[in-house]
Structure formats: C-alpha cells, structure tokens
C-alpha cells in the first residue's frame, strides 16, 4: 500500500524551512528525518507515525485519533500512530508535526551510519601480514640436526 501523497505534500510544506531535512522511503511509507533522526512518517498503512518520545508517549495516547505504534507485534514506545481523522485540517496537522519536531530538534545531529552488507563482510578476507620467506631447500643453513 502506498502512502498518501497529498498528506506527504502537506507535511513537506510544513517542514520546508527545516535545516538538514531528508525524506526516505522506509517502514512502508515516507519518513521525514531532521538531523538524521526520524521526526514523522506518512504511513503506507494509513495515517501518520509521529515521534513524541518515551516521556510523552502515555500522555499523547490519551488524545483522540492517537494509538500505539505496533511493529511486528511490539509496541514502539515513543512513537504514536495518528488516524487520518486527526489531521484533516492544517492546524491539526501542524500540531502533530510540531510534536515530532519538538522531540527531534534538540537532539544532536547523528552521522549517517554506513552499514556493510553481510555478503561483503563475509566475503572480505582478513589482511594477511607478509611472512618472511624461507630460503630455498638447497640453500638451507647447515647445522646440527635435532
């Protein structure tokens, strides 16, 4: 299921002035990242995912249209899913996006981690330090045999 392009355009417009804004297709939707940290996502399953942080998680879940974000049977503390009815107006959408920004903005910028694919890591051979060559057999040093 594709994410809602109209909602993505509305979020893009709200985040237009942010420095270090990156959009990435991930988690079945379009993720908006500020300082390499997820702020919010327009979900492919419908609705939006908003990062609110673990401290505000329980409080935000008490609001209308907010529900826990579940991924593979686990509740992701610090993230909430907002139903489309919760951000129909520009004011409502701005409120949710601002919550994500308020949590992410004070965080220090992360450096983008580069992951080595498993195939490359497994195929990479350890570097062998050159060993000193032994003299040819016929020129071996003569000495007492032990």
How does the SSE layout of this entry go?
Blueprint: H1 5-14, E1 21-26, E2 29-34, E3 37-42, E4 48-51, H2 54-61, E5 66-71, E6 74-82, H3 90-104, H4 118-123
Antiparallel strand pairs: 1-2, 2-3, 3-4, 4-6, 5-6
First and last CA, distance? 77 Å
Decide which structural class fits the backbone: alpha+beta
Element-by-element helix/strand order:
HEEEEHEEHH
Number of strands: 6
Low-confidence stretches: none
Q: Rough shape? A: elongated
Mean pLDDT reading: 82
Strand order of the largest sheet: 1-2-3-4-6-5
Total DSSP helices: 4
Proportion of helical residues: 25-40%
Return Rg in Å.
Answer: 27 Å
Structure in words:
The chain has 146 residues and is α+β, with helices and mostly antiparallel strands. Helices cover 27% and strands 25% of the residues. The chain has 4 helices and 6 strands, in the order H-E-E-E-E-H-E-E-H-H. Strands 1-2-3-4-6-5 form a 6-stranded antiparallel sheet. Strand 1 and strand 2 form a beta hairpin. The longest helix is centred in the middle third of the chain and has 15 residues, at 90-104. The relative contact order is 0.15.
């Amino acid at each position: 299921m594709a994410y809602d392009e109209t909602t993505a355009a509305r979020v893009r417009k709200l985040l237009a002035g942010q420095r270090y804004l990156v959009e990435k297709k991930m988690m079945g939707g379009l993720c908006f990242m500020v300082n390499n940290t997820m702020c919010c996502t327009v979900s492919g399953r419908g609705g939006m995912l908003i990062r609110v942080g673990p401290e505000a998680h329980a409080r935000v879940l008490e609001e209308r249209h907010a529900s826990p974000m579940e991924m593979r049977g686990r509740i992701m503390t610090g993230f909430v899913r907002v139903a489309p009815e919760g951000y129909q107006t520009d004011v409502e959408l701005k409120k949710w996006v601002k919550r994500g920004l308020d949590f992410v903005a004070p965080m220090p910028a992360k450096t983008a981690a580069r992951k080595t694919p498993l195939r490359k890591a497994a195929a990479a051979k350890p570097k062998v330090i050159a060993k000193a060559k032994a003299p040819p057999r016929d020129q071996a040093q003569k000495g007492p045999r032990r």
